[in-house]
Amino acid sequence: MPIGNSGIAGVPLQEDEKPELREVVMGLHWAPLEDYAKVHPENLDALCVLFDREQQIVEIIHPGNPRSSNGSVVHTGDSRTGASQWDDERIFVFLEALPADVTTLVFIVASVTGKPIREVRGASCHISDHATEYQWVNMELTTLDTQTTCCVATLSRSLTGWEISPTAQDINRENQAQSAALAALRQFEFARSHELIRAMGIKSE
Length: 205
What we know:
Blueprint: E1 23-29, H1 34-39, E2 44-52, E3 57-61, E4 73-75, E5 89-94, E6 102-111, E7 124-129, E8 135-140, E9 149-158, E10 161-165, H2 171-199
Antiparallel strand pairs: 1-5, 1-7, 2-3, 2-6, 4-5, 6-9, 7-8, 9-10
């Protein structure tokens, strides 16, 4: 589904016209050339790291763990090709359903192959309102430095509701989130490779 809203292009929305943060979607897209992708596969993943009020990690939602314990955060599934016309991976967050002890969410994009994200053709990411498609964050990932992970945005619980920031609010927390996200992905890929080996009937030494 294409994303479009007047808050990004055209006449900007006024502050009182912006939707309340209730249901948000993180969308990740990339567009490798078909022939190139067969020889040099490019694989990005969308992740969401949940923190409690003590800034301890509660859960990490990613392709290998696509649903939070109470279903308030849902990953729609792994894309290993970037073949979709629109978003290749999505994470839906239903903020009002989050457990009370979850106070911060960090959205992360990671390169599974270790290739710099900026070298992945057409890589982009958005954080949007689920109902109106208003884009809170819209990032062209090809403009990044040489990093293989990127914190796209942070959602924080406040006294008046939820607030979103596309910029770093807590470097230590975001570094922790990126390290934990990479560890989770490595575990997922390791388990996947062993499943493939078993499926092929190959015995390990």
